[in-house]
Amino acid sequence: MSGKRPSDSKSAGPVRKRKKIDLEQKMKILKKYEGGQSLSSIARELDLATSTVKSILNDSARIKEHVKASAPLKSTVITKQRSGAIYEMETLLTMWMEDQIQKCVPLSLMIIQAKAKSIFEGVKGKYSDPNAKFMASPGWFNRFKQRANFHNIKVSDEAASTDTKAAEKYPKVLRKLIEECGYTAQQIFNVDETGLFWKKMPERTYISKEEKTMPGFKAAKDRLTLLLGGNAAGDCKLKPLLVYHSENPHAFKGISKATLPVHFRSNRKAWITMALFEDWFINLFIPEAEKFCRENDIPFKIMLIVDNAPGHPAHLDDFHPNVKVVFLPPNTTSILQPMDQGVIANFKAYYLRRTFAQAVKATDRESGKTLRDFWKSYNIYQAIINIAKAWAEVTQVRLNAVWKKVCPQFVHSFKVFEKDETYEEVADEIVKLAEQLELEIDVGDVDELIESHGAELSNEDLIELEAAKVKEQTEAEDEAEAEESRHFNTEEIALAFHEIDSALARFEKMDPNSSRFLKVNRGIDETLACYRLIYEEKKKATIESSLDKFVRKIERPATSTPPQPSTSKAPSDDPDDVMSVSSSPSSSTD
Predict the structure, then answer these.
(1) Cα dihedral across residues 556, 559, 565, 570: positive or negative
(2) For the region Disordered, what residue ranges are annotated (predicted)?
(3) Between helices 459-479 and 109-123, what is the axis angle to 10°?
(4) Which end of the chain is more exposed for a tag (fewer CB within 10 A), N or C?
(5) Nearest of 425, 42, 430, 536 to residue 202 by alpha carbon
(6) How far apart are CA 197 and CA 452, in angstroms?
(7) Would you call 46 helix, strand, or coil by DSSP?
């Protein structure tokens, strides 16, 4: 006889299949219960175990908090709040990855894992377990991608290298396109982003060394991003776009941003996002290019060549029929991108030379001002002025010459373009200015500083950039103390929802594809769920408060009325007299 127990599956009742319940359904359960529906009725309606519904109701506070914190409604797990070394490491890793993506640097899983481990080792000493281990497993990385919203980022198994074959073929392809469409050198533009540590000294200077020993935020790590560009003829230099992490720096007090020699924009990370690039393209580049064509009596027909950075929207071609956007092949930026062939490096050298020249002039005065005093007072407004003047120093010859690799037919002279000659001249001048400031540096130090602006962010850079953001937030909070704090207003929320519904109704009328509209509508509803919950809670609180006031008003005891004057009739033993006193309108304070 077999030792196995005979199966009794036929006689057993049906086994309830385990279900995953997302936040959206949990919120429906809470609303049904709060609306008066019984626990057992909800369980039957949704085909759930009564114990499951009860657990959800017991966890209502946590569920509502996660919805208000904008957690995805389709998520089935309520994650715990993260903190400690892992949390800080992921914050800095996110910043590093975004910087690499901005620079079109290909990312591999191996490179990201190595960077994560390196950052973790650098920050874990601040926390309770300095001997903690972090493996940076593929499973961790997949969860990190979800947390950091890197859903569409392509991560290869191996590190990608520069595609030299594509770079060799592309100029012929581009030339054919240019000839077919009839573009001239004046009508073809290129732009590129670059970072600038606007208050950074060469590493070997005493100012740089002193600052490294100081605790807290270090000004040398304060970074901004520039978008620089011009046309292939070199006779149209675009006004720079500058993105800083502060919307209203202290140095701008009394200064209108509209009068700055750059297009000033801001976001917390001081990076050119897709939205900022799109805004620049529509509202700044197109009008500037059209004005240039009009003033030079040439047809308004423009080609803009950009790299394939994620911050460059693929749909830019849709915005204007006269502006064509062409993307360089992946992994060819360092070879083909015109602005990367010497323009940006020379611009940064001009900026440093101008800053050092100002320092020499300031410290030569009889006021006794030292270099340390000058550097401490040097602010973002002064940096912007120097940026504009340094950009003005970039010549038409240089702007034209850098197109040699991608559009050689437009370069006026095929004489070998050696950016190092001009660059070395500027670097020598910087060294001489440094000598007047009693700084011991050489051309190698200047090279190192110029290259550091575009180098990969080190762990120290990441920590300092995060400190800069924290410092900015603290200052903004201090400045906002006198201002009215932000808060949700029931009427304003209702108006916002009405406007959103009106906009969606317009799209529904226009869209011939009803499935597409329903998908968009569902997505918007899910995104706005956190605000709908806040609105419902505020509306409920308002109603309860009004009811409470009303009840207190009608139930107010007679003893709360002020005492009557001494001439009043004394209370009588007659019940009718007592009733007439207590119910008399004149005895009410209301």
Answers:
(1) positive
(2) 1-20, 554-590
(3) 60
(4) N
(5) 430
(6) 9
(7) helix
Long-range contacts, 49-53 (Cβ 8 Å, 24+): 49/16, 52/21, 53/29
Instruction: Determine, yes or no, domain membership for 53.
Output: yes
- 231 plus 380 within the same structural domain: yes
Q: With contact defined as beta carbons under 8 Å apart, do 23 and 67 qualify?
A: yes
Task: Give the side-chain half-sphere CA count within 13 A for 171.
Answer: 16
Choose the final residue of a domain: 12, 43, 69.
69
pLDDT (tens digit, 9 = 90+) per residue, 385-402?
999 999 999 999 999 999
Residue 377 lies in a domain: yes
Write out pLDDT tens, residues 355-374: 989 888 888 766 677 888 88
Answer whether residue 95 shows pLDDT above 60. Answer: yes
The identity of residue 258, as a single letter, is: A
Contact status, residue 449 vs residue 202, Cβ threshold 8 Å: yes
Q: Which of 229, 240, 234 has its CA nearest to residue 186? A: 234
> Residue 480's Cα: distance from chain center in Å?
21
Give the neighbor-by-neighbor strand order of the sheet with 241-244: 263-266, 241-244, 223-231, 188-197, 302-306, 323-327
Measured in whole angstroms, how far is the alpha carbon of residue 376 from the centre of its chain? 28
Return the pLDDT at 454.
67
Q: What is the DSSP letter of 571?
A: P
Same domain, 105 and 216: no
| Residue of 266, 283, 253 lying closest to 224 (CA atoms) | 266
CATH code of residue 345: 3.30.420.10
Check whether residue 413 and residue 530 sit in a common domain: no
Residues spanned by the domain of 293: 167-354+373-423
Regarding predicted confidence, which is higher, 484 or 294?
294
Please state, in angstroms and as integers, the Cα–Cα distance from residue 257 to each residue in 225, 247, 287, 379, following that order: 17, 10, 19, 15
Q: Are the CB atoms for 407 and 178 separated by under 8 Å?
A: yes
What is the domain count for the chain?
4
Assigned domain for 573 exists: no
Q: Does 35 fall in a domain? A: yes
pLDDT in tens, 422-437: 678 888 888 888 888 8
Where does residue 56 rank: exposed (0-12), middle (13-18), buried (19+ CB within 10 A)?
buried
Residues 310 and 392 in one domain: yes
Residue pLDDT, tens place only, 157-201: 554 566 788 889 999 999 999 999 999 999 999 999 999 989 887
Question: Residues 387, 501: one domain?
Answer: no
- Tokens 């605000």 correspond to 531
